[in-house]
Amino acid sequence: MEINFSPELIHIYGPFGIQAYGLFIMLAIIITVWALRKNKRFAELKLEPVYVNIIIVSILAGCFGARVLEVIPEPHIYTHWYDFFALWQGGFSALGAIIGITTIVPLYLKKIAIPVLPTCDLVAIYAPLLQAIARLGCFTAGCCYGIPIHSIFSIMYTNTATLAPYGIAIHPTQLYSSAILFMIFLFMYFIGQHVFKKTGQLFAAYLILAAVERFITDFWRAERFMVSKFLSFHQVVAVGIIAGAMFLMIALSCFRQRR
């Protein structure tokens, strides 16, 4: 299947324009926040007065973490130190965003006296939905593209404005990720929040499933920074997240406290 759309929806002036990638990110945030506010836990946690601030902190933490994890394996991709802050140029790691948010946001929640684990459980239900929609933005931009393949499932970018290689049949890894993440969301919404009864377990389950998704899809992604013969840098990070989340799940199972 040939993909010929332009990643820029509207050109404004010079380097500025409205990108399809940014539009999907904004759409993902809006839909996720709307869904969060509809959940009864949102009212129980009294998040209405502070949720905007939490969103802002989450975005900043996610961008920082995503950028850092993208730079660590290949620091040479940024010629100058200030290129790190040129967020409009892309270069983000989803796992880095997860690490940044799960590290910084709980500290902020604690500071404003909001229950940390119950809030993380609530967000964990809808986080994969946000990621699933955001991955469609990656698809439009041509980033996070897959390795070459010749099959009925392959795609071929025919617009040179995208980041994907021109005219080569490749794996649609962005769509793989989006589909898996949406299935994770369905599991978390319809099953997970009813099965995991202890506070924090839902959050741990999300971390495990999100990391497993990246570990699996990374086998078909191009531009992997390999740290061994079989595993990429991001797969190793995913394994670390899985191990940490499993430890959290086991530790929480030792407590008798329930929601």
What is the gist of this entry?
With 259 residues, the protein is mostly helical.
Biggest beta sheet summary: 3 strands, mixed
Mean pLDDT: 91
- Provide the structure class: mainly alpha
Spatially, the strands of the biggest sheet line up as 1-4-5
Percent in strands: 5-15%
Q: Rg from C-alpha positions?
A: 19 Å
- Head-to-tail CA distance between termini: 48 Å
* General form: globular
Q: Number of helix segments?
A: 8
The ordered string of helix (H) and strand (E) elements is EEEHHHHHEEHHH
Description:
Strand 2 (8-13) and strand 3 (16-19) form a beta hairpin. Helix content is 58%, strand content 7%. It has helices spanning 20-38, 40-44, 51-71, 94-111, 116-141, 173-195, 201-217, 233-253, and strands spanning 2-3, 8-13, 16-19, 155-157, 169-170. Helix 6 runs antiparallel to helix 7 (201-217). It has 259 residues and is mainly alpha-helical.
Sum up the structure in keywords.
mainly alpha; 7% strand; single chain; 8 helices
What are the SSEs and their pairings?
Blueprint: E1 2-3, E2 8-13, E3 16-19, H1 20-38, H2 40-44, H3 51-71, H4 94-111, H5 116-141, E4 155-157, E5 169-170, H6 173-195, H7 201-217, H8 233-253
Parallel strand pairs: 1-4
Antiparallel strand pairs: 2-3, 4-5
Helix pairs in contact: 1-5, 3-4, 4-5, 5-6, 5-7, 6-7, 7-8
